[in-house]
Write a structure and sequence with these properties.
By secondary structure, the protein is an alpha/beta fold. Helix content is 28%, strand content 21%.
Length: 279
């Protein structure tokens, strides 16, 4: 569907905040963070942008020079529509990062109208324009897909990935559904501030599979579709054990999941933090 060559790399090692518990990531190409948007994802974004204190290590590296926060652009989860004209937003980007706002407006085919009169996709393009100012090495896209209309999602992703490819930038994409996971060169499943799985296309952790089942399609008449309600993660053991179908069907497994945090096991080439895959 889409592809992006490996460019800059961001290494996160044993990252800890009040909502993140020792996660380790290697971010390059199109790296996707799969999981419901919560404080842990927000903390990760703030750490990468230099807005939050943390323990652990974050290294920005492209083989030649370090990447600074000024090389990072953010597509926010909430695409707000302030009562200003499009050109005013782009002028702010130009002042902050440098660049010709008129050229970028023409390139993205943006009309200079009030933001609050734009359709969702046009609002997205205004926020996307920030990546074309200055020298962008990392694009962070919060889970805006969850909040926009279905018909705009594919087109927004297409523009986002095309921009990253054009700029040879790494893309960190947050998603609360696995609907578009085929675009990812690498997937980290994060829940309760912990990495539950690291892999590619096929996912195995029960929480990961819940994210995949969140993609609802129209089936045959009277066909039953399982929907799992996922609430607050547990502080002990596996954070997902209270909602896990596998643990609920096995009393001994549930007890182990409730008391002991699982290490990573290898399943199908993925690293999966789940006692189901203990050898």
């Amino acid at each position: 569907m889409f592809s992006l060559s490996v460019g800059d790399m961001i290494f996160v090692k044993n990252l800890t905040t009040e909502n993140i518990h020792g996660i380790t990531l290697a971010i390059d190409g199109i790296t996707c963070i799969l999981g419901d948007w919560d404080k842990d994802k927000s903390d990760l974004v703030d750490v990468l942008l230099g807005r939050k204190r943390f323990s652990g290590e974050v290294s920005y590296f492209n083989g030649i020079e370090k990447i600074s926060p000024s090389n990072i652009r953010l597509i926010p989860r909430n695409l707000e529509r302030p009562k200003v004209f499009v050109s005013q937003i782009l002028k702010l980007f130009s002042k902050r990062y440098s660049g010709n706002y008129e050229v970028i407006m023409n390139f993205l085919n943006l009309n200079d109208t009030e933001m609050n009169s734009l359709e969702e996709f046009e609002v997205f393009k205004v926020y996307l324009s920030s990546v074309f100012f200055g020298k962008t090495k990392l694009i962070i896209s919060e889970d805006f897909l969850e909040l926009i209309e279905e018909q705009a999602k594919y087109l927004a992703l297409k523009y986002l990935i095309k921009a990253a490819k054009m700029l040879n930038s790494t893309l960190l994409l947050f998603m609360s559904s696995a609907e578009y996971s085929e675009i990812c060169s690498k997937i980290y499943v994060i829940y309760g501030g912990r990495v539950l799985e690291e892999g590619r296309k096929e996912l195995y952790h029960p929480y990961s599979q819940t994210m995949q089942k969140s993609v609802i399609t129209i089936g045959k008449k009277f066909e039953k579709i399982d929907v799992v309600e996922v609430g607050k993660p547990s502080d002990k053991g596996c954070p997902f054990h209270d909602y896990c179908y596998a643990a609920k069907n096995d009393k001994l497994l549930f007890r182990k999941c409730a008391l002991q945090e699982p290490p990573f096991f290898i399943k199908g080439g993925n690293k999966v933090a789940c006692w189901l895959y203990e050898m």
